[in-house]
């Protein structure tokens, strides 16, 4: 989640005091870290999910706004606002569903691997100078930068501890 924030200038803009609007699609493990990282960088953060019941949790993690992707009014309320959208969804879906949320010149970054092809009409991309890109994890330099940033800002992953007695080690 950190490497695309560096590559698409969210980290640099934070250092220069320039606020962006960063959307995060898919509010699971990666998505919640994306919310926390973008918020800690001082950006306006929009959580995007198909599950309307995740709104409060998203706001607790740092989201300034919540878009229920299955609700056209919710999508319309945040239309043309995001500079960058980090898409963590790895289930089959259509990325074009999120393009209306991008402002002119905005980019959606695919982070969740989807094996089915996406239908991508060109006109919305061309007329809005919008982009769809992909990203993998960063290298050692970016990883160290991320660890230092998380330590400084006290950004921690959400974890669930399971006592050893609850684990069935006999997989026979």
Characterize the structure shown.
It is built from 7 helices and 6 strands. Helix content is 33%, strand content 20%. It has one domain (2-166): Rossmann fold. The chain is globular. With 172 residues, it is of the alpha/beta class. It has a 6-stranded parallel β-sheet with strand order 3-2-1-4-5-6.
Please tell me the total number of domains. Answer: 1
Query: Which CATH architecture is right?
Result: 3-Layer(aba) Sandwich
Spatial strand arrangement across the major sheet: 3-2-1-4-5-6
CATH homologous superfamily (4th level) name: NAD(P)-binding Rossmann-like Domain
Compute the CA-based radius of gyration.
Answer: 17 Å
User: Which structural class do you get from the secondary structure elements?
Assistant: alpha/beta
For the largest beta-sheet, the strand count, sense and barrel status come to: 6 strands, parallel
